Amino acid sequence: MAASHPAIRLALLAIAALSASAAPNMTPDYEVKLLMDPSIVLDPSDHKLTPTVLSTFAMPTTVTKMNVQFLDTSSKEIYAAGWSPRIRKTEGENDFELTYKKRYPVSSNDIDGTLTTANTQGFDSGDSNYDAQIEWGYTQKTLSISRKKSASDSGYSGMDLPGTSNSRSMLIDKAPDKFDDWVSNNWGTTKLGTSRIFGPVLAKRSIGTWNSTQLYIEVWPIKDSAGTGIEYIVEASFKTNSRTEAEQKHDALMAFLSGKGWFVAQDSLKTGLIMDRY
Ligand SMILES: *[C@@H]1O[C@H](CO)[C@@H](O)[C@H](O)[C@H]1NC(C)=O
């Protein structure tokens, strides 16, 4: 039999190995996020975007509120494993949005290499329940892979988020398998069972236009490093499906904000700040 020949057996093994890993990488979209200087773009008394900023981007004075909190153990074991389970209430929307997000830092600018790493860990194009996004900051990029679920907000009013016990049960009930079994069987729900709240942070989003693209500016009041006051993080962002457009407009928006004196040359690490300060 030809297949018993050692060289052919090797070739068959190689083909089997290739087809086992043949699912293509996920196709991400891109979200460019750049920081703006709160001491210049916010009114010092009410911490709202100044009329100049609003008119520059054709933004109305109305904002959309978003109340956000993360759950993790006190020693942040879930975050350390690269995951962030989050509960969000967005003004005007029914229900709470639950998100289970896995982060992969992009090193050496190698977006495709990072998508391949995620693929080897089980996130490939066949997984339509998860969305891949490259979060593109000033210098750093992060691949985030997230799964969204929802939970009823009946019994809650306004922008209220659930307390610890209900937050735990909501995130445990809806936990997807990949999150739950990431480290070992039922790791995720076990950790959520002893988790606490990090946050909440009530952010405000304005929506306008810049360079034919929808532009968001979000103001996030986050506890300051001393823990006694509030630090306002102001982030301008836009989304695109095109890597080329993300790159060109990232540079163009940076130049535009710099020209106005509004740019902060730092990467935005909102989730990291919330995990550190709450
Ligand atoms: C608008 O974006 C394009 C890339 O899509 C860029 O080449 C151009 O310089 C930008 N224009 C401005 C005014 O920043």
Kindly identify the CATH topology.
Hypothetical Protein Pfu-838710-001
Major pleated sheet: 9 strands, mixed, barrel
Write down how many β-strands occur, each being a DSSP E stretch of 2 or more residues. 10
Residue fraction in strands = 25-35%
Q: What is Rg?
A: 22 Å
Task: List key phrases describing it.
278 residues, alpha+beta, single chain, binds 2-acetamido-2-deoxy-beta-D-glucopyranose, 10 strands, signal, 9-stranded mixed β-barrel
Short description:
With 278 residues, the chain is an alpha+beta fold. It is 31% helix and 33% strand. A nine-stranded mixed beta barrel has the order 1-5-6-4-3-2-7-8-9, surrounded by four helices.
Outline the structure in words.
This protein has 278 residues and is α+β, with helices and mostly antiparallel strands. It has a single domain (24-277), classed as Hypothetical Protein Pfu-838710-001 (Beta Barrel), CATH 2.40.320. 31% of the residues lie in helices and 33% in strands. A nine-stranded mixed β-barrel has the order 1-5-6-4-3-2-7-8-9, surrounded by four helices. The longest helix is centred in the last third of the chain and has 18 residues, at 243-260. Bound molecules: 2-acetamido-2-deoxy-beta-D-glucopyranose.
